[in-house]
Amino acid sequence: MEYLERDPRSVPGCSVGRVVSVKRRPERMRFGFAFLSVLLVLVLPSGCSIHRQTPGEVTAAKLRQMHGALLEFRALDGRLPDSLELVCRRDGRLCELEAAISWKTDGWGRMFRYVRSDGEFELRSGGPDGLIGTADDMEISSLIERGRVHAVAACYLTPRAWWNQLADNVIVLDTVPRGSGYTLLPDAGEYVGRWVPEGFDSVRLAWIRADQSMTLRLRSYADSLVGRAVGTGRRFVGVKTSCPDQLGR
C-alpha cells in the first residue's frame, strides 16, 4: 500500500470531494469467516489532485510546526524546553500526538538539531546531504522569524467584496502564535485564520476549515500586501490602516 503524505483537504483551495459509491465484496474464507472489503469511490473536484510530499516539503512543514510548538511551550512554562522530547511530554497535542522520536526527525529520517541561546532557539535539518552546515541546510530561527513577523504584522484594509465569507474589510495579521503560524483575524464562520511569513518579503494567509481553505500568497511592501488567491487567481490588495486593540505586538 502506498502511503500518501497529504490528502486533498490539505491542498490549498481544494475541497475533499464526495463519495459517490460504496461497494462491498466478499473476500476469501479465513478461519471459517467471510471477510468483506469496502471499495470507496471518491470524486475530486476539477483541478484537484493528491499531492505526494517530497522530503523537503515534509521538512519545511515540520520546521514550521515545531517552531509553533516551541513558542507555545514557552508561553505555557515561561521557558524553552531542554530537549525536543520534553515538548511531547508536556502535551502530546503540541507534537500532534506523534511519538517524540518521529516528531523530531526531518523528511529524510534524520534528527533535527535544536539549539538554544539567550532565550532564542534554532531548529536545523542537514537537508538532502544530511550534513549540518552545508548549503542545503533547512532551518528556522526564532530571532529571525520574530523580526519578519513584526515587520508585517498590522491591520490591512481590503476590498469588501474579495471573499463572501468575510463580513469585515479589515484583516489583522497578529503576532500571537496559532498552531504552525500566527493568528489571522477575523475568523470566517467555520474557517480559522492563520498566517505565516515565507522568505523575507512574502506571506501566506489561510482561512482553513475541515474540508477546504482560502489561501492567499502575497508579497509584502512597506504599506501593503499584494498577491493572488491560490487556485482561483483572484487578485488581493491590502493597505495598512489604523489598528484596533486586538493586534498583539
What report would you give on this structure?
The chain is 18% helix and 37% strand. The protein has 249 residues and is α+β, with helices and mostly antiparallel strands. The protein has 3 domains: 1-52, no CATH class; 55-141, Glycoprotein, Type 4 Pilin (2-Layer Sandwich); 153-241, no CATH class. The longest helix has 23 residues, at 55-77. It starts with 17 loop residues before the first strand and ends in an 8-residue tail after the last strand.
Q: Brief overview, please?
A:
With 249 residues, the chain is an alpha+beta fold.
Name the descriptors.
249 residues, Glycoprotein, Type 4 Pilin, eight-stranded antiparallel beta barrel, 13 strands
Helices and strands, with pairings:
Elements: E1 18-30, E2 33-43, H1 55-77, H2 85-90, H3 100-103, E3 113-117, E4 120-125, E5 138-141, H4 142-152, E6 154-157, E7 170-178, E8 181-185, E9 192-198, E10 202-208, E11 213-220, E12 224-229, E13 235-241
Antiparallel strand pairs: 1-2, 3-4, 4-5, 6-7, 6-13, 7-8, 8-9, 9-10, 10-11, 11-12, 12-13
Q: What portion of the residues fall into strands of 2 or more residues?
A: 35-45%
Largest sheet: 8 strands, antiparallel, barrel
Radius of gyration: 21 Å
Label the structural class. Answer: alpha+beta
3D shape? globular
State the end-to-end CA separation: 47 Å
State the helix count: 4
Low-confidence runs of at least 5 consecutive residues: 1-44
Counting structural domains, the number is 3
- SSE succession: EEHHHEEEHEEEEEEEE
Helix content: 10-25%
What's the β-strand tally? 13
Q: What is the spatial order of strands in the main beta sheet?
A: 6-7-8-9-10-11-12-13
Mean pLDDT, to the nearest integer, reads 81
